[in-house]
Amino acid sequence: MKKSNISIFVPHIGCPHQCSFCNQNTITGQTKAPTPQDVADTVETALRSNKNNTFEYEIAFFGGSFTAIDRAYMLSLLEAAYPYVKSGKATGIRISTRPDFIDEEVLVLLKKYGVTSIELGAQNMNDKVLAANMRGHTAEDVRNASALIKKKGFDLGLQMMTDLYTSTRGLDFATAREFAKLKPKTVRIYPTVVLKDTYLAKLYESGKYKPCPLKKTIALCADLVEFFESHDIEVIRVGLHASEEIKNNMLAGGYHECLGELVISKMMFNRITQLPPGEHQVFINERSISKLLGNKKSNLAALEEAGYKLDIRYNNALKPNELRIV
């Protein structure tokens, strides 16, 4: 059975800070805060569409700092979602929040209402980078919150942003190494996108912030995914979800509608080029062939130019995105 999220977006209302990159209305595509009835309606709609029990659902509250919103409102949303967990119609509840809004008291409440996974918007583990982007928390806050979340029996997820203002490739990798020490179950990687009406937009327009070109963003993310996977950490998302709001409000940055697929394609290219040029048999799940070939067969062309001759064969017993090279 496939796993899927029933996503409910809770906009910026919970966040006490306006970070350099943040325009939450653009990111979530909504300004209205959901009501408990909205939660129930969203879940019921998803359940009705799952007639053949194709999906195993997790209810996910995204878009804001869930534990920073008004406590009564937070509980009302959880009370609307929890019956679906209790009845077995959902496997659990996932939330995203800030590391400085996690303590023992709130974790007890979250556990009571069926929350199973907590994602922290850590973004970077360098205090100077965090301060430059007006995050309002420190790397130590991330460490402390992560330890407490795991101690209380929740699955830990960490979210990082690459190419933040004043960050570098080296600092982004240092963040990845710090994440690995915290042993999260999952990670999301979000390359920085410059959105209108943000502090970062002002920095960009004044020339003080120069975003990383997309090609370098893809290469960096490919290396980061390889790093996390080598530490048994699942990368569940690369890049912001595609939306008209982002398209219409983006000024620059590491955004592409198919960024995740481009990153996987780059990873496959890297794995092949670790071997010497020549003839190689490559076994791949048929569903992943477009990623191996690359956008407009760019991987294939670059490999042929570098002296690689591939005999591509399908093996659908392999996992999606898995390669076996002989």
TrEMBL record:
What processes in GO biological process is this protein linked to? Answer: tRNA wobble base 5-methoxycarbonylmethyl-2-thiouridinylation
What does the record list as coiled-coil region(s)?
none
A Pfam family matched by this chain, by name?
Answer: Radical_SAM
GO terms (molecular function) for this protein are: 4 iron, 4 sulfur cluster binding; catalytic activity; metal ion binding
The organism encoding this protein is Candidatus Eubacterium faecale
**What's the name of the protein?**
Radical SAM protein
Keyword entries, A-Z? 4Fe-4S, Iron, Iron-sulfur, Metal-binding, S-adenosyl-L-methionine
Give the matching SUPFAM superfamilies.
Radical SAM enzymes
Limits of the Radical SAM core domain: 1-234
PROSITE patterns registered for this protein in UniProt: RADICAL_SAM (PS51918)
Cellular component, GO, one term: cytoplasm
* Entry cofactors: [4Fe-4S] cluster
